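Pipeline run #58 for the internal structure catalog. This entry was flagged by the ingest filter as a single-chain record with no existing model, so it goes straight to prediction. Upstream metadata was stripped on purpose; only the residue string is passed forward. Reviewer on rotation: M.T. Logging verbosity set to normal.
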Amino acid sequence: MASVAVGKKRRVPALGWWLMVVGTVRLAFTWSCFFGSAALCSATYSQAQVSDVHGRTVGVWTLLSCTLCFLCAFNLDNKPLCLATFLSFVYAYGYFVVEYLVYHSVGASTLAALGFFADSDTLWLGTHPVPPILTVLPSGPVHVKSIQTYEWIEHCIHKIID
């Protein structure tokens, strides 16, 4: 992590502010999933019946991603945290794309609204001065015959840690 001189305030860059906005939206969604079964959570799954258990499960998952947004907003120099936040957007949007295409439990308008946040965050985090994905992947070509999958994953993990 970058060191900050004593007495100097650390400014939050625009990406940090945007992640706080997204985290706040996710926090509102979490609240809705826990306490308002007819509100945002049910509206997201407009094509399917939402049980209380499903709503709370989605709420906990969203609360976790909300936490990642806020932690990343204040620690944009932390590669593993940026990577985890980046992947949370990829996984969440991937989940909703599957719900739309395979199970037809979300509508196109919901997918578009979620895509606005997921796509903008994924692009912004992916091009951040410490791009989480680009700094993790091994440099140079990776030949499938010369490196086993688990070795490649181990290499990526060591790149994150180092």
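catalog note: The radius of gyration is 18 Å.
catalog note: The helical segments are 14-35, 40-44, 52-74, 79-103, 108-126, 132-136, 149-161.
status: ready for reviewer M.T.
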